[in-house]
Amino acid sequence: MLEQSLNCQHWKNWRKHLMVKNKVQLITYPDSLGGNLKALKSNLDTYFPNLFEGGIHILPPYPSSGDRGFAPLTYFEIDPQFGDWEDVRNLAEDYDILLDIMVNHISQKSPYFQDFLKNGRDSQYADYFLTLEKIWEDGVPVQSDIDQMFLRRKVPYSEFIIEKTGEVEKVWTTFGKTTPSEQIDLDVHSEQVKQLFVDIFKHFHDNGVKIIRLDAVGYVLKKLGTSCFFVEPDIYDFLDWILGVAKSYDIALLPEVHAHYSIQYKLAEHGCWIYDFILPYRIFETLSNEESKFLVDYLQTRPHGQFTMLDCHDGLPVKPDLDGLIDSKEARKLVDLALDRGANLSLIVSDEHKDEDGFDVHQIRSTIYSLFGEDDDTYLAARALQVFTPGIPQIYYVGLLAGKNDIEAVEARGDGREINRHNFDEKEIAAAAETEVVKRLVNLIRFRNQHPAFEGDFTAQAPSPTELVLSWENGAERASLTIDLKAKTGHVAYTEDGQEKVFTI
Known about the structure:
By secondary structure, the protein is of the alpha/beta class. Helices cover 32% and strands 20% of the residues.
């Protein structure tokens, strides 16, 4: 594993420079906590006032033709069913807002691609898209080149008939379950596309957005002779350019790259925020196996400049994120435990990306509360480990409410990801807020937000094979988490007004 590239002092200075608060954030869909953005604000104000001091990641609220917002038609409108930009600005008065830009693609139904479908190469937006002569000089795909690529579809392009000419155009489409694809790749080398991104950043800035997540940024460059995924060193030129745009609008960037952990570390060394996609598995492993070693070893070597999470709108990452860090036989035991608790799996399709023994688990899909056996103490131990880990903690809305696996939604919609995407109405939110597990979680979040020790230096220790101690020290201020892995209990020892105090998580 790469050595930690950011020491604690560097971390503190760097974080301050990049304008991200060292507090807990919420992740939610625009309609998942009450039905729309107005209800989101109202329910947070009523049931969780001033809790998410780090901000809110609102998953795509734009008009979209699919993938629950990730096939956007435009970034300049909010889907009317969720509200409008005034609602975003109202939220931004109280919270730092994080929004997504799908830098790799846009919807087939977008006005840009619809004009292209009508007018073909005569469209004013023709250069937005990757027609195949931009990849192959004669526009004819070569299978041997495609065989080298990391594919998300059987072929990385779709065919469309141009209304004006009746001709067939082949356009690059990395993602999409339909044929032709619903998600059309953008040409990030195009000056028009660059200007589109600049316009989006300005629009977001004008509406109070503080952080942008670059969704699927690893796929933006297509270069023959490569996998067309995280193409080095070319990707850094794009990142440097878009980081410059973001800086000009006082916006922080969070690149999203699901890949081997070494790529995450390269991004960190390049000065980017990254996701800690290793931590969820390590915490699940630690609490399930009642063994502290692997998590402590990891916490002692990881970069600090990360957004931490246990749960999100997808699943708990396994492959390829942790390739080389985990044993497939041991991983299979954890996967089987998750399945026994109602989880489902996202699997690796390509044989060449499976382990030699056939292990093929891409993600474990479950609510985090159900993954930990719907046991309050175990769940809170997991959350405590997350919020004591250096970085910016993000709490997914289902996890906030200790939601259980939504098996009915999976069966009704035929999508395994629906297991962790339940939309809560106000009655459900009010009921969850009164449960002991949620009250204890809220107390933990408030402590993480408010105690000054978390601006200091971090250490991780394993006093015994079944015990973990994570500590922060900032001058005279201290906060220390101790977890008994066998009992699944923990406590926090901390300073307050010069006094030593303790609370049970």
